[in-house]
Amino acid sequence: MNLKRREWLLRRSVVLECSPFAFKVESCFPEVFSNLETIYGNRIVDGDEYDGFIDYFVSIKDSGGLRRFLKDQARFTCDSLEPFKPLNRSQSYALLEWGLNWVIAAHEVSHLVIHSAVLAKNGKAVLFPAPPGSGKSTLTAYLSRNGWRLLSDEMALITPLSLEVSPFVRPICLKNDSIDLVKTWFPDAIFSSVATDTHKGDVVHMAPDKASVDGQNECAEIVGVVFPKFSKGTFCDVFEMDKSTAYTALAENAFNFSVLQDRGIQSVINVAEKVPAFEVKYDNLAELNNFLLEDIVGQSIAK
User: Fold this and answer.
1) Based on the number of CB atoms within 10 Å of its own CB, is 96 exposed (0-12), middle (13-18) or buried (19 or more)?
2) CA distances (Å), 7 to each of 80, 86, 231, 250, in order?
3) Which of 57, 87, 230, 277 has the lowest CB atom count within 10 Å?
4) Cα gap 122→303, rounded to integer Å
5) Which runs of E-coded beta strand occur in the chain?
6) What is the pLDDT of residue 234?
7) Among residues of the chain, what percentage have pLDDT more than 90?
8) First to last CA, the chain
9) pLDDT over 80 (residue 122)
């Protein structure tokens, strides 16, 4: 029996229990399952043995027909929807992680979803909305291994009309030069296989630390919003944003802002009015960490 046929017969499914959601993941690619088990550990359950509620059904499929023998590709689907173009099979696990981001961004309505990293200290959370290239994920990796609890690298799940943010503890997506940098910092961390030559360059997913996974059901209170930007040679320049600017920036990063309609508008207003927001340009991660601890978390506890 040839390899392609054997892989087709090995098609199976697992359930990813990633609070507050459960995803059923089907694939015919063994590397998808090996990476899932590496990154998520015991949060992966055999699909045939799971009897709980499943929020989303997703799959990573091959191209089908003769194409899979000529140019093997990976396709992501959710409930028969295919939001992305097929990618090279070597990028199949990265495609799955990006697909899970899309699923929540496109369908979640019980939370206000903001494109942002979220980290917490002593139950106090800071949001880090940032565009690609800002160094957000490198910062997230550093903080999550220096006393902060990782709630998410990609999206803040905010209870509408409140300052409560729910964890969605998944891996940190590292790209290009930051891969070797973070591996040097944290040699004992767990990483996925490398997806090369993606639209983001080389990509690796770093597993969350055990303490963050153990706290995946513990919500936190938002006490600050920081828009970070790595700037070589800059000594932690901090600019406090006025409330209207903060509102606009948060709204621009909200995935389901318009879907929630009035609740979405009022939820963003609530965060902008009650929580200080800053633009921070930095070169030294330790200096930024000190600012976060003293001027955001420390000030919130002192109130």
Assistant:
1) buried
2) 22, 19, 46, 44
3) 57
4) 15
5) 12-18, 21-27, 44-46, 56-61, 73-78, 87-88, 112-115, 117-121, 124-128, 149-152, 155-158, 164-166, 172-175, 195-198, 201-206, 220-230, 237-240, 277-282
6) 82
7) 81
8) 69
9) yes
Lowest mean pLDDT among 13-22, 136-145, 182-191, 293-302: 293-302
Dihedrals φ, ψ of 263, to 5°? -65, -35
Would you call 158 helix, strand, or coil by DSSP?
strand
Please report, for residues 20, 28, 68, 97, 267, the alpha-carbon distance to residue 93 in angstroms, rounded to integers and kept in the order given: 21, 12, 17, 6, 34
SS3 assignment, position 247: helix
Amino acid at 182: V
Structure tokens at 137: 């994920």
Q: According to CATH, where is 3.90.228.20 located in the chain?
A: 112-170+208-302
Domain 112-170+208-302 fold:
Phosphoenolpyruvate Carboxykinase; domain 3 (3.90.228)
